[in-house]
Amino acid sequence: MSMHLIPNPRAYQALDGAFTLQDGEKVKSELRIPLVRTTTREARIIVTRNPALQKEAYTLNVTPEKVHITAATPIGAYYALQSLRILADYDIGGRTVPCCSIHDAPRWGWRGMSLDESRHFFGKEEVKRLLDMLFMMKLNVFHWHLTDDQGWRIEIKKYPRLTEIGSKRTCTQVDGWHTSHMVNEPHEGFYTQEDIREIVAYANARGIMVVPEIDMPAHFAAAQAAYPWLACRELEREVPGYFGGRVPTLHGVMDWNRSACLGKESTFQFIFDVIDEVCELFDAPYFHIGGDEAPKDEWKKCPHCQAKMKEMHLNDVEELQGWFNNRVLEYVKQKGKRLIGWNEILAAGNLDPSVIGQYWTPKRDKNVERHIARGGDVILSNHRSFYFDMTYGQYPLSYTYDFDPGRYHIPPRSYDHVLGVEAEVWTEWIDKRPKLDLNVYPRMQALAEVAWSAEERKKYADFKERLEAFKPTLDALGIGYAVTSVAEPGTFQRQKPRRLFYCGDTHYELKLNEERKAKGEK
């Protein structure tokens, strides 16, 4: 066991003795490391540049006299210092590091987590808190879901009504997917462009790339509430409070997920204008358009969409969406970005193979396999392992840890086309910090090990021991993680939270967790 280090390093050797950190300890570094006070004078922690290492790799050698780190880049040095922090139990007052030798590098280049802020808005400080934990766990991508049916959360100066109207709803669905219960409480919030710049800079300083998602052409209801001409039928509508399940109809369509009209040139001008402003704020070489769950019935009846299909010689509405995605892709490419979309978009036979498919669906998708065979790239976000909005009754902690690409028919020979893994935090039923913490931790720690550690270094029993040793650090950081009996319920104990999540009480596990923590359980 590699002490209580998470994620487990590639190679660890315990040595005799210990190094004791002193107050005001300085770092002598050949690399400029933001957030770290370095010196050119003598110091006991030394960082040496080694360009032969991969970008995020590092070595960490601890003796009783000094700590020697080698890395090719500042982020590699950062990760070494994070390992030192955990080994020392620094956040709970520890200062003694066992002597050791570590050689470490990540398994996957894309190690991510998303946050949906359309359904529930959390704000700058909560996002920064999440970024701090991503950094500690050596996760390097923050996928930010900023728009959806239930709220538009990013300022677009050319279209002020997106935040004046689209960021506000008057009510919210509660009690699970199989109910239509609503609470008449307003929910609103958005990020100014200055807020976005601040958060992107905060993430970048920690080696985290922020990838924006502007959901299109579906999940467009908030935008249509602001600008009805974006719809096939230009009707006045409010931002919906329904998330799905038993949703009533309005004007003959379900009152939530609405698709943009793909037959109007004004729709494309709107989208291109939004892309222009968003790309000015985010320096990541990627742009996520979602693209999933697109209702197509309106397109089948819309004279604008039907005329466009005839003009472009498109055989069906799947090809209409493929044509839309390709047109957006070409525009995004001019901005120096690659397009990402959920794996449903791969169903279109006319889709450009340079699109990155994010594979989330629970079942096998042969379109993903076809995309890889054509040379396309994917990100793995499979529902069973990486949908952190689900209850532990549905998906216990072990389901995250035991993720295997082979279960989804992606063999090792295809790994060159797998960018990495990413967990999703959808917030239909996650409204405030306590519920966010419960659902994310300790799943984030399991995700970190899946994303970083070599397959042969992964053993669940060993991980659980290291996790127990790490929990005091989570306590010190104020993280409200799920205790063991909630995160890993028995077969019988799984039934109630799973049933209530769909109909009755989406916060049942949170209440149970608080009761058990009050009794001293970890």
Structural overview:
This protein is 33% helix and 18% strand. The strands form six sheets. Strands 16-9-8-23-22-21-20-19 form an eight-stranded parallel β-sheet. A seven-stranded mixed β-sheet has the order 1-7-5-6-4-2-3, covered by helices on one side. It is globular. Helix 2 (124-136) runs parallel beside helix 4. It contains 18 helices and 23 strands. It is an alpha/beta fold and 522 residues long. The mean pLDDT is 95. It has a domain at 11-104: Chitobiase, domain 2.
Quote the average pLDDT. 95
The strands making up the biggest β-sheet line up spatially as 16-9-8-23-22-21-20-19
What fold name stands as the CATH topology of the domain at 11-104? Chitobiase, domain 2
* Alpha-carbon distance between the two ends: 21 Å
Outline the fold blueprint:
Elements: E1 11-20, E2 27-29, E3 38-39, E4 45-49, E5 58-62, E6 67-71, H1 74-87, E7 96-104, E8 110-116, H2 124-136, E9 141-145, E10 147-148, E11 151-152, H3 161-164, E12 168-169, E13 172-173, E14 182-183, E15 187-188, H4 193-204, E16 209-213, H5 221-226, E17 249-250, E18 253-254, H6 265-281, E19 286-288, H7 297-301, H8 303-312, H9 317-334, E20 338-342, E21 356-359, H10 366-373, E22 377-380, H11 383-386, H12 397-401, E23 418-423, H13 433-440, H14 443-452, H15 460-476, H16 484-487, H17 495-502, H18 508-518
Parallel strand pairs: 2-3, 2-4, 4-6, 8-9, 8-23, 9-16, 19-20, 20-21, 21-22, 22-23
Antiparallel strand pairs: 1-7, 5-6, 5-7, 10-11, 12-15, 13-14, 17-18
Helix pairs in contact: 2-4
